[in-house]
Amino acid sequence: INFYINDDNLSLKNGFYFRLYNQYLMLLPIITSVIAASLFYMEYTNRTLLTWLSYDKNKFKLFNSKVLAFLLISLQLMLVNLFIIIIFYAFNNAGLLTLGRISLSFISLNIFIIVSVGAFTLFIINMTKNIIISFTAGIVFTIISMILIAAPFSYLLPATLGYRIGHLLLDSSFYYDKPLIHTLTGFLITVITTLSLYFLAYKKFKIHE
Fold it and tell me: I need a surface site. Which of 13, 24, 180, 201 has the fewest CB within 10 A?
C-alpha cells in the first residue's frame, strides 16, 4: 500500500525502501521492548523462578534461556520482514547489488536495535517488575531515537548509530564528519552499555515478593 500511494518509487535513496526504513525505526524499538518485557514478565507472574530455584537450578541458565528466546524471536521477525522486502524488490526487477544493499542496511538497523533496546528493556523489566513501565520505556526510547537521528552526536546512542550505519548503504552523504572515529566510538559505547545493562538485568533477576 505504501508503495502504490507514494509514486511507485523504488529508489533506495528516497523511494519506497527509504520510507519503510524510517517507519521501521519507529516500530522496531517498541516491538523489541514488548518481546523482551513479555518474556520476563511471564517469569514473574508464573513464578517460574521460584520453582526453578526450589530444585536447586542455576538462575544464570534460566536468565540466559529467556535472553536466548528473546533473540531468536527477534531474529525470526527480522528474517521474515527482510524476506518480504527482498521478494518485493526482486519481483520488481531489482538487481543483486540493490538486494545486497537492502539486506545489509536492514540487518544493521535490526541488530543494533535488538541488542541495545533488548538490553535496556531487560534491565527495566527486571528492575521494576512492571510491564507497563517497560512498554512506556520502549516508546520513550523510540521518541528519543527519532529526535536525535540527524544529530551530529547520534553515534553516542546505539539505536541511532545503527540507523546511520544502515542508512550509509542508501545514501553515503548522510553520515558523520569523522566516519572512522565516530563509528568506532559508537561501537565501543554500544558494547559497554549493552554488557552493563545485561549484567544489571541479571543482578535484578530475583524472586518477586
Answer: 180
Q: Specify the pLDDT at position 208.
A: 55
What percent helix, strand, coil does the chain show, rounded to 5?
Answer: 80, 0, 20
pLDDT in tens, 168-180: 887 777 788 888 9
Q: Which residue has the cell 566510538?
A: 185
By CB atoms closer than 10 A (0-12, 13-18, 19+), residue 99 is middle
How far apart CA 13 and CA 19 sit, in angstroms, is 9
Q: Is the dihedral of CA 156, 198, 77, 99 positive or negative?
A: positive
Burial 179-194 (b: 16+ CB within 10 A, else e): eeebbebbeebbeebb
- Helices (H) and strands (E) counted in the chain, each on its own, are 8, 0
Burial string for 38-58 (b: 16+ CB within 10 Å, else e) reads bbbbebbeeeebeebeeeeee
